[in-house]
């Protein structure tokens, strides 16, 4: 009785006819579900196909979700990381720069480990981070500069122990701008070939949006 009632309420789903060869045709309800799944698949394909319309490919991008998960323009990406492998004594009066001598990565070739200076190979917005460990019972005061402009600083002094400093900043750079870490006073850094505690890292965050576009200029000093 229940089956008869269901057929009367849902005739499109339950009505079917048999072809002459003995096989049944698909129920109309089954066809509707299949068409819905097929339509969803087509929609997904269209979204993937037109991904670039919403997320256009720009130089400097790493991975763009598109067609074949295309990897693009990694040769234009900029990133570096270097560490200090020796004990160093720096003097502000000598305009000393921290000599991060061991290069871990130098994509774009912007970092020079002979003078510790990063020179921007292309205009863009960059992230910079530095960390340093002082010699035991010595002070440490380091400043990050863009060209000749002071940007951020750090200070540490721990009696009878090792003090450490760190800082980070996001900066707009034009091509050929420089970034480096300088001594603020007489500074004493600890480092060994197998004990690297002092490092300097930077990478391109947004291409083509540099210092001129941002209109920002570093200024100020710790005195």
Automatic annotation (TrEMBL):
Subcellular location per the Swiss-Prot or TrEMBL entry? Secreted
Q: Which domain of life is it from?
A: Eukaryota
Check the record and name the InterPro entries matching this protein. Answer: C1q_dom (IPR001073), Cerebellin_Synaptic_Org (IPR050822), Tumour_necrosis_fac-like_dom (IPR008983)
Which SMART domains does the protein's record reference? C1Q
Q: Which Gene3D superfamilies match?
A: 2.60.120.40
Does Aminoacyl-tRNA synthetase count among this protein's keywords?
A: no
Record-annotated C1q domain positions: 73-211
Question: Does the record carry Cell division as a key word?
Answer: no
Matches recorded under Pfam families: C1q (PF00386)
User: Which of UniProt's keywords are assigned here?
Assistant: Membrane, Secreted, Signal, Transmembrane, Transmembrane helix
Residues spanning the membrane: 31-50
Gene Ontology annotations for the cellular component aspect, listed alphabetically = extracellular region
Protein name listed in UniProt: C1QL
Upper classification of the source organism reads: Eukaryota, Metazoa, Spiralia, Lophotrochozoa, Mollusca
């Amino acid at each position: 009785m229940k089956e008869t009632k269901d057929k009367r309420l849902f005739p499109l789903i339950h009505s079917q006819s048999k072809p002459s060869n003995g096989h049944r045709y698909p129920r109309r309800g089954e066809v509707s579900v299949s068409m819905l799944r097929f339509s969803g698949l087509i929609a997904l394909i269209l979204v993937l196909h037109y991904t670039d319309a919403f997320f256009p490919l720009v130089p400097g991008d790493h991975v763009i979700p598109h067609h074949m998960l295309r990897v693009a323009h990694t040769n234009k990406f900029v990133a570096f990381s270097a560490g200090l492998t020796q004990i160093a004594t720096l003097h502000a009066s000598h305009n000393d720069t921290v000599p991060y001598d061991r290069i871990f990565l130098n994509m774009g070739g912007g970092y020079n480990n002979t003078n510790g200076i990063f020179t921007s190979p292309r205009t863009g917005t960059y992230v910079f981070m530095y960390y340093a460990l002082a010699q035991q019972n010595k002070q440490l005061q380091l400043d990050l500069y863009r060209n000749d402009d002071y940007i951020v600083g750090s200070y540490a002094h721990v009696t009878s122990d090792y003090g450490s400093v760190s800082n980070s900043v996001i900066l707009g750079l034009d091509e050929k701008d420089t970034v480096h870490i300088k001594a603020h006073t007489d500074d004493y850094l600890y480092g060994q070939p197998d004990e690297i505690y002092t490092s300097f890292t930077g990478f391109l965050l947004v291409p083509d949006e540099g210092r001129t576009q941002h209109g920002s200029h570093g200024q100020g000093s710790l005195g």
